[in-house]
């Protein structure tokens, strides 16, 4: 037939791209959830876990975050001896904690300590979403409160990175009490005029967004981070309205006055340094 004359013959067989993309060797390559680009894991780590094609910010673990910010060799961890208990005798809770400890090498869903950033001393806390989804139990709350007390005693600024699913279900009301405990100690920092910077990363939700992570003198967030209290579906059912597509993103919250700035990860260290410099107490320099 005539149309066959114009049909190009393929010389090679092609592999459907969806099939090719499925076969990503684990640990060596990672696929960007936003644009689908396959990235070599080591390249991704070098680029602070940001996709070079679309700037998607992959999650960072607490140790990776500390390394990306703190002057080498200056970080001293606090309270790694604190152990989670099982106050409600929740089924399998302690086994799950043991599993997460093994997987992450952390004692709980947060790392706290003191160190220096560009030479400026600070107290730093970084939540880790790999550990029980970064949920806040008694130990997480206690470690934040103790870190804040160190900031009070030493008069160092306190910088806290959130990444959390909220209060920890398995500790019930003990988890909820951490909201009050952390908020109280942060109020003491406020009274003593000690700088507290909160950095909200993906995701920061539930009781964490409703307590310490929204209480910064300065509240920063990473691009695209999900930040909110209740889930979209629950709110839509309650208010019986369709919510905007960008609802509960860092950009949406910035637009509505809930955040001070959305800072891409590449600029975050410099921005923190700038803020520390700006607020540093220089004593009598005469
Ligand atoms: Zn991407």
TrEMBL record:
Cofactor(s) demanded: Zn(2+)
C4-type zinc-finger residues: 32-54
Gene Ontology cellular-component terms listed: acetyl-CoA carboxylase complex
Residues in CoA carboxyltransferase N-terminal domain copies: 28-286
Chemical reaction(s) catalysed: N(6)-carboxybiotinyl-L-lysyl-[protein] + acetyl-CoA = N(6)-biotinyl-L-lysyl-[protein] + malonyl-CoA
EC number: 2.1.3.15
InterPro entries: AcCoA_carboxyl_beta, Acetyl_CoA_COase_Trfase_b_su, ClpP/crotonase-like_dom_sf, COA_CT_N, Znf-ACC
Pathway: Lipid metabolism; malonyl-CoA biosynthesis; malonyl-CoA from acetyl-CoA: step 1/1
UniProt key word NAD: no
Keyword rRNA processing in annotation: no
Protein's cellular compartments: Cytoplasm
Top-rank lineage group of the source organism: Bacteria
GO biological process, one term: fatty acid biosynthetic process
Alphabetized UniProt keyword annotations: ATP-binding, Cytoplasm, Fatty acid biosynthesis, Fatty acid metabolism, Lipid biosynthesis, Lipid metabolism, Metal-binding, Nucleotide-binding, Transferase, Zinc, Zinc-finger
Entry binding sites for Zn(2+): 32, 35, 51, 54
Cofactor note: Binds 1 zinc ion per subunit.
Any one GO MF annotation of this record: acetyl-CoA carboxylase activity
Record function comment: Component of the acetyl coenzyme A carboxylase (ACC) complex. Biotin carboxylase (BC) catalyzes the carboxylation of biotin on its carrier protein (BCCP) and then the CO(2) group is transferred by the transcarboxylase to acetyl-CoA to form malonyl-CoA.
Protein family (similarity comment): Belongs to the AccD/PCCB family.
HAMAP family: AcetylCoA_CT_beta (MF_01395)
Assembly information from the UniProt record: Acetyl-CoA carboxylase is a heterohexamer composed of biotin carboxyl carrier protein (AccB), biotin carboxylase (AccC) and two subunits each of ACCase subunit alpha (AccA) and ACCase subunit beta (AccD).
PANTHER family: ACETYL-COENZYME A CARBOXYLASE CARBOXYL TRANSFERASE SUBUNIT BETA, CHLOROPLASTIC
UniProt-recorded name of the protein: Acetyl-coenzyme A carboxylase carboxyl transferase subunit beta
Origin species: Seinonella peptonophila
């Amino acid at each position: 037939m005539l149309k066959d004359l114009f049909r190009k013959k393929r010389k090679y067989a092609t592999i459907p791209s969806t099939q090719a993309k499925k076969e990503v060797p684990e640990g060596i390559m990672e696929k960007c959830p936003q644009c689908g680009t396959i990235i070599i894991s080591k390249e991704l780590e070098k680029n602070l876990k940001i996709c070079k094609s679309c700037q998607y910010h992959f999650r960072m673990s607490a140790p990776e975050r500390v390394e990306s910010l703190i002057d080498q060799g200056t970080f001293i961890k606090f309270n790694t001896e604190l152990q989670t208990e099982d106050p409600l005798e929740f089924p399998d809770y302690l086994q799950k904690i043991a599993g997460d400890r093994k997987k992450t090498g952390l004692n709980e869903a947060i790392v706290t300590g003191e160190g220096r950033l560009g030479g400026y001393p600070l107290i730093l806390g970084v939540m880790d979403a790999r550990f029980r989804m970064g949920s806040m139990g008694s130990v997480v709350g206690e470690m934040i409160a103790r870190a804040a007390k160190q900031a009070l005693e030493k008069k160092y600024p306190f910088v806290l990175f959130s990444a959390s699913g909220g209060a920890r279900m398995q500790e019930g009301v003990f988890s909820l009490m951490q909201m009050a405990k952390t908020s109280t100690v942060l109020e003491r920092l406020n009274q003593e005029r000690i700088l507290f910077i909160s950095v909200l990363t993906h995701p920061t939700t539930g009781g964490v967004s409703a307590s310490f992570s929204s209480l910064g003198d300065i509240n920063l967030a990473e691009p695209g981070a999900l930040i909110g209290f209740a889930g979209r579906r629950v709110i839509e059912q309650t208010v019986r309205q369709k919510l905007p597509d960008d609802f509960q993103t860092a950009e949406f919250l910035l637009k509505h006055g809930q955040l001070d700035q959305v800072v891409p990860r590449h600029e975050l260290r410099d921005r923190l340094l700038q803020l520390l410099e700006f607020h540093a107490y220089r004593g009598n320099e005469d």
